[in-house]
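WARN retry 2 of 3 for item q-0093 after timeout on previous attempt; input resubmitted unchanged.
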Amino acid sequence: MDNAQLLIELLKYSKAGYIEANTTVISKQLGLSQQSVSRKLIELERHRLIKRLVSNRGNKVIIDSEGRKLLAEKYASLKNYFESSRAITKGKVKTGLGEGKYYMSQEGYVKQFIEKLGFKPYPGTLNLDVDAMQTLTFVNSLVPLRINGFDSKERTFGALTAYKVKVNNVDCAVVIPDRTTHDIGTLEIISPHYLREKLNIKDGDQIIVIEE
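OK item q-0093 returned
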């Protein structure tokens, strides 16, 4: 947990101009040991992010000058992000059916992805569990890029539509095949990277997908 995240957590306990920073309560909330929270508070004070007044009731904390500056920077960043005119949707990471690797490796698709999306996709897709109606609205606001179907020696591969997006500032694309085994509550994302490793995410983690 970085300093800004801990400061934001401390603000939850703010009242009457100061923060009652009970390390036992905070440690349970954050899933950290009480000793770890105490060390972090000492670190914040050393960097002039907070001032601490120790009493019988625990730590009383005041956000110091550098802390206010850090929070202001974080607020400005989040305000700009959430007030952006770009379309946004969100979903939770889940394990897919394992078919993405096969399809994303087909040369007939890869050539078109490089030409139309500007990248060669990692052989696989990131699958998100999403709110169907919210995601349909999101997708309908994006620019569609048609990826044509093709024939190989073994079989016919169907067409799909791709939409350029970003996930945590990483170039990606939503892909929606004309024929798919997924319902509309699943969103498939491709990227030049192995996103689970690149973004350090796992099943159940929520991520935000934003219009490029």
